[in-house]
Design goal:
By secondary structure, the protein is of the alpha+beta class. It starts with 11 loop residues before the first strand and ends with a helix. A 7-stranded mixed sheet has the order 1-2-9-8-5-7-6. It has a 5-stranded mixed sheet with strand order 10-13-14-15-16, with helices on both faces. The protein contains 13 helices and 16 strands. It is flat, with a radius of gyration of 28 Å. Among the domains are: 49 residues; 106 residues, Alpha-Beta Plaits, CATH 3.30.70; 115 residues, Trna Endonuclease, Chain: A, domain 1.
Length: 403
């Protein structure tokens, strides 16, 4: 899903306390494809035009009042998949300074009428640009001044499909929490999906409901008390992965509209398996640094990405990031917690008390404001609270108590 739509561009209807998307009918889809074709055709002929000129031209594409929201959404998606660049590589702030200084000097020495073109030509010579190039570059950092360099490489049908995905995603971005039922027959699929969740530092809880059956609860952007834009972008990337991974049902508690009315949204995804697990690097940089550090090998400790899921009925599944081993010793697992929820650390403490046979180091930044004391009395597992950055040396000290 490559773009986000604001709530005013999402076609929904409400039935009681349930929110529903208004799907495109066959006739509406045919009309949407026609509008998309016009938008894409127009963009293809506007290369070199400014963003302001492009938007003005797209505004001339005719549609009915009923179709206005659809057309605006399609335009938004098409523009987000276009490439706009400054008309020149010259730095506009520095150019304005040079022009203003030259103009002031020329006015101070002026004996005849002030010659603006001469000022621009003189500055242009100094920076290796023509007067016309300098004119375009002077205010190229202002909104609407960027020029269209590449139109979307999309068919009209693909743009309409993107619109339908963006409609769905737009609802989930207003979620307080999302519950998903997943059927993942291959354990590697489970690990890959949840590495994606952990890589983006999302707040989630996983429960095993049966062989290959899992229930996933994700804390949505609207559950956060602080600005959720960055979390929302990460959340949007993962919702697509959850759907493609084999979600059989999705249910979201959303705050909808200006009044933020609490509603329930339910969605039954179509099964999409192809391409669900790509080769993206889904390991956080801190974990990659631990994997690549020579310190552990020097101490006779082997480190690798974890291949196990640790389950305690009623308390969820822990998906460790790494596992450490030394000769003749059982593995010690390692999970790096995100920095957005203190509650996750307390839940891990409850989990560890009920699972004394597992040895896990849970690492949390001191910015999370939790203390190792919450693990007091826990057998087998530890909470590593680290100030600043997570280093191999800090992990090694924690490992020495368990290996």
């Amino acid at each position: 899903m490559s773009a986000l739509l604001s709530p005013d561009l999402i076609a929904t209807r409400r039935r009681g306390d349930e929110l529903k998307l208004a799907p495109l009918s066959a006739a509406d889809r045919e009309r949407a494809i026609e509008i998309a074709q016009e938008i894409l055709y127009a963009l293809g002929g506007l290369l070199g035009s400014t963003e302001e000129e492009v938007e003005l031209c797209l505004g001339g594409i005719e549609c009915t009042t009923r179709e206005k929201k659809l057309k605006t959404a399609l335009e938004r998606l098409a523009l987000s998949n276009s490439t706009f660049e400054a008309p020149t590589e010259l730095a506009p702030v520095e150019l304005r300074r040079m022009v203003f200084e030259e103009a002031a000097r020329a006015r101070a020495e002026m004996r005849e009428k002030f010659d603006r073109k001469l000022v621009l030509s003189q500055v242009g010579e100094r920076v290796g640009a023509t007067r016309e190039e300098l004119e375009r570059a002077l205010f190229s950092d202002l909104k609407g001044a960027a020029e269209l360099r590449a139109a979307p490489a999309l068919s009209a049908e693909a743009l309409v499909a993107m619109y339908e995905e963006a409609q769905l995603l737009g609802v989930f971005l207003r979620a307080v929490r999302v519950r998903a039922r997943l059927r993942l027959e291959n354990p590697a699929e489970v690990r890959t999906l949840f590495w994606k969740l952990k890589f983006r530092e999302l707040l989630f809880r996983l429960e095993e409901r049966g062989p290959g059956e899992y229930e996933l609860q994700l804390e949505g952007p609207s559950s956060l008390l602080v600005s959720s834009t960055r979390y929302g972008l990460r959340f949007s990337q993962v919702i697509g992965a959850v759907i493609r991974a084999g979600a059989t049902s999705l249910e979201a508690d959303v705050l909808w509209g200006k009044s933020k009315r609490p509603l329930t949204f339910r969605h039954a995804p179509r099964p999409i398996r192809e391409g669900a697990y790509d080769a993206e690097d889904d390991l956080r940089p801190e974990l990659s640094a631990l994997l690549e550090s020579p310190l552990f090998e020097e101490k006779g400790i082997w480190v690798a990405r974890a291949s196990s899921l640790l389950h305690v009925p009623g308390l969820g599944v822990v998906v460790p990031d790494l596992e450490f081993r030394s000769a003749g010793s059982a593995p010690v697992f390692f999970e790096l917690l995100g920095e957005t929820s203190r509650e996750a650390a307390f839940k891990r403490a409850d989990w560890a008390r009920q699972n004394p046979s597992s040895r896990v180091i849970f690492a949390a930044s001191s910015r999370l404001r939790v203390s190792p004391e919450i693990f007091e009395g826990v057998q087998g597992s530890r909470l590593l609270v680290y100030p600043g950055s997570l280093t191999p040396k800090k992990v090694l000290v924690a490992l020495q108590d368990l290996l």
